[in-house]
Write a structure and sequence with these properties.
The complex is a heterodimer of chains A (737) and B (79). Chain A is built from 32 helices and nine strands. Chain A has 737 residues and is α/β, with parallel strands linked by helices. Among the domains of chain A are: 163 residues, 3-Layer(aba) Sandwich (Rossmann fold); 97 residues, Orthogonal Bundle (Helix Hairpins), CATH 1.10.287.1770. In chain A, the strands form two sheets. Chain A has a six-stranded mixed beta sheet with strand order 2-3-1-4-5-7, with helices on both faces. A two-stranded antiparallel ribbon of chain A has the order 6-8. The N and C termini of chain A lie far apart (72 Å). About 2% of the residues of chain A have low confidence. Chain B has one domain: Roll (SH3 type barrels). With 79 residues, chain B is an alpha+beta fold. Chain B is globular. Chain B has two helices and six strands; from the N terminus they run E-E-H-E-E-E-H-E. Chain B has a six-stranded antiparallel beta sheet with strand order 1-6-2-3-4-5. The longest helix of chain B is centred in the middle third of the chain and has 9 residues. In chain B, strand 4 and strand 5 form a beta hairpin. Chain B starts with a strand and ends with a strand. The chains are: A alpha/beta (737), B alpha+beta (79). At the A-B interface, helix 3, helix 11, helix 12, helix 16 and strand 9 of A face helix 1, strand 3 and strand 5 of B.
């Protein structure tokens, strides 16, 4: 059967919507406690009893107004796509508030089934719900489920299929909003119906309500379709609004909300809910919150948890990191022995293995970090972090909810600015959102992490975790100050509300954690496998071509010939044999030959396209202590930060010959005269704050405009370079190297 | 005696009398169930005493002090 039923899954954030979606479709999706993590609606297919079903996961919302992107996405989907059935997931332990959205669906009239989730939690809290009565009062089918375990979902789907088969028309519910408003609604509906105003899309009463609620989107649509009718509707709405304001000092939308809750309360009061025991008793969540958000203990616990995450990530991932490194080392050796010298071998070893191997070597680190973050996220702790941090974030013109994009981007090191930039969609104020959007790329994302880890491991090996932590703190400080500066200049404006839910603490499910961790890690690997491979080869080409002129190559050959000729043939033979122990004479010959090779390699690299760019920038970059090899790597980092490592790998492997081939990039840097602790610090500062990678730039452009994207590219680079120069100059002056 | 919600203490319970906010703030407050007649309990305050955590209809909400200013409540008698 190719025919499928279209179903939309809708409900409040934290009602278990994504958990149910995952359970039904088996799809690997992100489940978070953060309100509105599913901004784009996700689709999945499944079948039951031979019936195919397409289910769309709508963003979690509390209302169907036009204040946030999520609400618009959800509303537009229902109206434009007209799914056959809406599964409205409702949290049984928080029934009254959840029904507020249900009520709005009913007013819209969509065919609906209620999935009453978390029946287990409600039972534990002593709440029992009279399903029959509720069903009867609402006039909507209800199926009790436990999304986490899948209990009741088969019945839910059977019911959904049954409702779809009925193929009924939309039946909008009319709720009385009190005398004043009901009167003007009648007037509005009359006008809407006679003029057929927007009625193809929305029920007339829904349009009338939206005009009373002063809904920007619907009114803009109305203006577009028929300005005249729209103006007359606005006038009717304006009259009643003024009247209410004068007589009762309230807004129409407040009265509408009051009556919706009145409708819900009238239902619930009819013995729908019975509390078996005292509801005021402390839930486990409250007990935890007493400690975890305590004035003194809260911040300490937060610090300990975040620092613990670092220790966990860095110390536990060390062993698998070493395995991967030696695996790629062996692979390189194998190819070195198998392939004849030449361009292909050079490309595979310098371009492919060094590039991809360098990046994949860090997969365990990222895996561990994401696992830790998933625990914080799924348990509900991250929402508490937002709660505790809001007062501080507000100082910088941000919102407690900015924490999430910051953390996703690498506020707890190891995120990615790409999902971070996307997560800013959940911020409701455009200005706070822009400020967050432009500053999250300052965070230490998972791609900068290996670069920082390499430099810290090489130059500050004794205090790895401490330095990593300090650099994270630095990223936060810079990002917050930058946000404040933006909010005081280009992004001035009033703050947005912080009415946010603190979801109850939950023990994360192992399956959920694995899905999260794997999905994020896989994204990283995919990036490493495709983008990085291409760029690695491109950079190898940039560093190889144009090759040295025939003349210069011959000159080098000649030098070698002259040198060899000055030794006896016996010594020459010995040097070529690659024996374990060489005579002093042969040893010297070998070293001298290598020096020539090194000069030749260095000259070829300088002569290449990349070398030319890097060298031409050396005059300026030397202010921050960067040599041309570092410049090349930093240019590569524009494409993706992890490329910095692979490029350095290539740049420094070319400059040095076989003797040290076994050495890691870290050792090569340690031996380089152009590198020391101060240069490493300046480089890390620059890498942390300069232009975001190309993918992030594209995301910023998509989420705002190219103007902002270019702005962030240029201003970040200028800032980062200034910072790096200060670090290098001060550090050198103080002889810290 | 009705008071401004900001002045509620931790663990104090009150009933909402009025919500004088319009626009988006008004919507966000109301969609979470903070409407006249609703019973709320202050469950805790953030380390810097702002925002506060409220128990509303079986869920926990956060609200900043300057947002609570729009809400008038009638505190219940303390037992």
């Amino acid at each position: 059967m190719s025919e499928f039923i279209t179903v939309a899954l809708a409900g409040n954030p934290n009602a278990g919507k994504t958990t149910l979606f995952n359970h039904l479709t088996g799809a690997r999706q992100h489940v978070g406690n953060y309100p509105g993590i599913t901004v784009d609606h996700k689709e999945g297919y499944f079948s039951r009893k031979g019936q195919n079903i397409r289910i769309t996961d709508l963003p979690g919302t509390y209302s169907l107004t036009a204040y946030s992107v999520e609400e618009l996405v959800a509303r537009d989907y229902l109206v434009n796509e007209q799914p056959q059935v809406v599964i409205n997931i409702v949290d049984a332990s928080n029934l009254e508030r959840n029904l507020y959205l249900t009520c709005q669906f009913m007013e819209l009239g969509v065919p609906m089934v209620i999935a009453l989730n978390m029946m287990d939690v409600a039972r534990d809290r002593g709440i029992s719900i009279n399903l029959e009565k509720l069903e009867q009062q609402l006039g909507v089918s209800i199926v009790p489920i436990v999304a986490r375990t899948g209990e009741g979902t088969d019945r839910l789907i059977d019911k959904t299929v049954e409702i779809a088969a009925r193929d009924e028309k939309w039946k909008p519910l009319s709720i009385s909003y009190g005398e004043d408003l009901d009167e003007s609604i009648l007037e509005l509906v009359a006008t809407i119906e006679t003029k057929n105003f927007l009625t193809e899309q929305y029920p007339p009463r829904f349009i009338a309500t939206k005009y009373l609620e002063d809904d920007e989107q619907i009114i803009a649509k109305g203006d577009e379709v028929n300005r005249e009718v729209s103006d007359s509707l606005k006038e009717i709405a304006g009259v009643v609004s003024d009247h209410l304001n004068k007589t009762m000092d309230v807004y129409p939308e407040a009265i509408i909300a009051d009556h919706r809750y009145g409708f819900i309360k009238s239902i619930i009061r009819q013995d729908v809910i019975t509390h078996k025991f005292d509801t005021d008793r402390l839930y486990t969540s409250d007990k935890i919150d007493k400690v975890v958000t305590n004035r003194l203990l809260g911040p300490i616990i937060m610090g300990v948890i975040l620092l613990g995450l670092y220790q966990f990530t860095f110390s536990w991932s060390e062993i698998p990191v070493r395995w991967l490194e030696s695996f790629f080392g062996l692979l390189g050796d194998g190819i070195n022995a198998l392939l004849p010298d030449g361009m292909l071998k050079s490309m595979i070893i310098s371009g492919v293995i060094d590039g991809v191997g360098g990046v994949l070597g860090f997969v365990p680190l990222i895996l561990f970090m994401f696992f830790g973050i998933a625990i914080l996220e799924d348990s509900g702790y991250l929402a508490r972090v937002a709660f505790m941090m809001d007062r501080i974030f507000r100082i910088f013109g941000l919102h407690g909810s900015s924490v999430m994009p910051f953390i996703v981007s690498g506020g707890v090191a190891g995120g990615c600015a790409v999902p971070g930039v996307m997560a800013t969609r959940t911020l409701r104020s455009p200005k706070e959102r822009m400020a967050t959007l432009l500053t999250v790329p300052f965070m230490n994302c998972g791609a900068k992490l290996p670069v920082l880890a390499l430099l810290i491991g090489t130059f500050f090996n004794e205090h790895k975790a401490l330095y990593m932590f300090l650099f994270t703190v630095l990223a936060w400080i810079v990002a917050l100050v930058a946000a404040k500066v933006l909010r005081m200049t280009v992004l001035r404006g009033a703050p947005t509300p912080f009415v946010m839910e603190l979801p109850p603490y939950r023990l994360p499910t192992f399956r959920g954690l694995i899905i999260h961790t794997w999905e994020r890690t896989w994204q990283y690997i995919k990036k490493a496998g495709t983008v990085i491979l291409g760029i690695s080869i491109l950079l190898w080409a940039m560093m190889t071509f144009p090759t040295l002129s025939q003349e210069r190559q011959q000159q080098f050959d000649q030098q070698r010939d002259t040198l060899t000729a000055s030794y006896s043939s016996q010594v020459v033979q010995e040097a070529q044999q690659d024996a374990e122990k060489l005579s002093a004479e042969a040893e010297r010959l070998k070293n001298e030959l290598e020096t020539i090779d090194r000069h030749q390699d260095e000259e070829s690299l300088r002569n290449s396209y990349a070398g030319k760019i890097g060298t031409s920038l050396e005059d300026i970059s030397s202010l921050a202590g960067f040599d041309w090899r570092t410049n090349i790597s930093l240019i590569g980092g524009f494409a993706a930060k992890e490329v910095i490592i692979s490029t350095m790998g290539t740049a420094y492997s070319m400059g040095i010959t076989d003797v040290e081939e076994a050495d890691s990039l870290g050792k090569r840097l340690q031996h380089s005269e152009n590198w020391n602790k101060v240069v490493a610090l300046a480089a890390m500062v620059f890498i942390m704050f300069y232009a975001p990678c190309f993918v992030t730039i594209v995301c910023i452009a998509k989420e705002s405009s190219w103007k902002w994207a270019v702005f962030s590219m240029i201003s970040n680079t200028i800032f980062a370079f200034t910072f790096a120069v200060v670090v290098y100059q001060v550090g050198t002056l103080l002889h810290l190297a | 005696m009705p008071i401004n919600m900001r002045h509620l203490k931790v663990n104090q319970t009150a009933t909402i009398i009025s919500v004088k906010a319009g626009g988006e703030l008004g919507l966000r407050i109301r969609e979470m169930g903070l409407v006249p007649g609703t019973e709320i309990t202050v469950k805790g305050k953030a380390p810097l005493y702002d925002p506060v955590a409220l128990r509303v209809m079986g869920g926990t909400l956060t609200l900043r002090n300057n947002e609570a200013d729009y809400i008038t409540v009638e505190p219940h008698e303390t037992k």
